Amino acid sequence: SDKPVNTINTTSTVSSTDAVNTNPSTQNPRQPTVIIVGAGPAGLFAALQLLQTPRHPSHPPPKVILLERGQPVENRGRDIGALINRQILNPNSNFCYGEGGAGTWSDGKLTTRIGRNSGHVRQVLETFVKYGA
Fold first, then answer.
1. What pLDDT, on the 0 to 100 scale, is given for residue 14?
2. I need a surface site. Which of 2, 34, 57, 127 has the fewest CB within 10 A?
3. What is the pLDDT of residue 3?
4. Strand order in the sheet with 33-37
5. pTM of the full predicted structure?
6. Cα gap 14→100, rounded to integer Å
């Protein structure tokens, strides 16, 4: 079951009320808020793990907020194209910043150890495919 994660692009102005509900009357005291910085593989999988981990019925899943400095992958592709083809750098959306992290524009051989994938690496690759990679 897919559960929502709030993704906030931090290149926009974000007030504290956008990120976290500060009204005590509407907050569930048993529902923690977890803020993850970065929508690279570690941030994406941290959010996924938090939402998929089984818990006692009396403990609701956490509210997960994912902060990302860069652009969603579709916009990031245009920014990287502008960098490569016209040498126009967007300091907030480039090879280093944006959804998917720095590895979005690599073939992954160095980090996945192609040919020797452990069960954990295989699980990551299968999850990427499941969600559209």
1. 38
2. 57
3. 47
4. 6-9, 63-68, 33-37
5. 0.65
6. 21
